[in-house]
Design a protein that fits this description.
With about 200 residues, the chain is an alpha/beta fold. It has 6 helices and 8 strands. It binds flavin mononucleotide.
Length: about 200
């Protein structure tokens, strides 16, 4: 998606683009959304659509990292075309206090986590794990549901989420049956990941 309200045009290798500051509160990040950029996005080979609408690529941002419309515009200006506004919840509630994000070692999508000193975090409750640790589990789930959808001839399309960070991960998700793919962790850590991947997907 191309958005024009430029402030700053990133250069190759520029890792200084603003992103969610995990050491500050959700409220702080909510109030400090970066401005959209003007960037030449490489076209992604193929024809893509989402819910019947034409889109420039199957690349998107998952539920959560885009706190409000200004965050949506920022990531829309960085090569993402399928963007989830904020979050998917059944009821309103205040965001959790810090830590909102915590590096962990885990291999499951939901797990109890400890800090570096072995202390239980989040009162010992399970929390969602994201990033590299869940990539294979996410792919397995897409393959499983693709089989079910095929067997029952369901009119459903899947959006693959979980550990996607490279063009190779994108291709694997699409080959497994995803109609679009969404990034969470990778795009929070490196807002340019979509632009980099578009370069690699430009030639198919
Ligand atoms: C900071 C953050 C906030 C998230 N908030 C939500 C949320 O509110 N609702 C939701 O359904 N998923 C939420 N997620 C989960 C993501 O949508 C996604 O499923 C998960 O991060 C796995 O993708 P990843 O490995 O690319 O990060 C959140 C993830 C992160 C990192």
């Amino acid at each position: 998606m191309r958005v024009s309200a430029e402030k700053h045009a990133p250069q190759d290798g520029d890792s200084s683009l603003p992103c969610y500051d995990w050491q500050r509160s959700y409220e702080w990040n909510y109030n400090h959304a970066p401005s959209p950029l003007t960037v030449d996005e490489k076209p992604v080979a193929g024809t893509w659509n989402y819910c019947g609408l034409p889109v420039g690529s199957p690349l998107g941002i998952a539920a959560g990292p885009l706190l409000n419309g200004r965050w949506v515009l920022y990531y829309a200006s960085l090569g993402f075309d399928v963007l989830t506004y904020k979050t998917v919840r059944s009821r309103a509630r205040a965001s959790y206090p810090l830590p909102n994000l915590q590096p962990v070692f885990a291999g499951r999508v939901a797990a109890r986590v400890k800090d570096a000193h072995g202390r239980k975090l989040f009162d010992g409750e399970r929390r969602g794990i994201a990033g590299d640790a869940i990539r294979e589990a996410a792919l397995d789930q897409i393959r499983l549901f693709a089989r079910v959808i095929g067997e029952h001839q369901l009119k459903l399309r899947m959006v693959g989420v979980g550990g996607i960070a490279t063009a190779q991960n994108v291709r694997a998700q699409l080959a497994a049956g995803s109609h679009a793919v969404q990034f969470g962790t990778a795009a929070m850590l490196d807002p340019q990941v979509g632009l980099k991947i578009r370069g690699e997907l430009a030639s198919g």
